[in-house]
Amino acid sequence: MPSSPPQWPISFGYTLLRATLYVLFIAGIAQGGYFEALYLPEVRYTELGFTEFAQTLVLASCCGLLIYVRQVLKVWPTVTLLLLAFVAASLVREQDYFLDYYVADNTWKVLVSLIVIPSLVWVVVQRRRFIEEFSHYSNTFAFGLFTGGVLVTYIFSRLYGRQDFWRAVMQDDYIREFKDVAEEAIELLGYSLILFAMIELLLIARRIHKARQIAR
Fold this sequence. Notes:
This protein is mostly helical. It is built from nine helices and no strands. The protein has helices at about 10-40, 50-75, 75-95, 95-100, 105-125, 125-135, 140-160, 165-170, 175-215. The protein is globular and about 65 Å long. The termini are close together.
């Protein structure tokens, strides 16, 4: 049963189409942030603004794609479980304001623990299978995009959004909103790269699934 993507050539036109759609998506979220700043001053870059809503939508879409790959196509189940735990935990973390306000303080931490800990335990138990699956996944474009998205979201945005940095740049004109705008916009960019990675993973999984059907 094939576990690595079949070496079927991908046409230039198909590649160009995907690249064009990704460019349009990035342009769309940038334009959304632009409209948010100009026309939604009451909620801009808050939990009710476009950027935060887009982050939630992107992460929820990632979860949906991973569930489909794992449960329907049944490709790389341990790798996709770990990816799903990571993305779902990020989705819950983005809802911390609502969970703290409507449920209880630190609810998101409890939910993240309930998602991450069992998933890690299962991956450790299935570590041999995980290593085999990861050896295939790590050699794909999807993995490269996912890594880029993680680095942008969880490393660069955090460092770039440090208050000391923005105080040094703006000095006496420092306003926290400028820091928040920069950090949240970069986070959305990183999440978008992760979404692209999940789309690419779906395309690979479909090819593997098709190859399995043919091999039967």
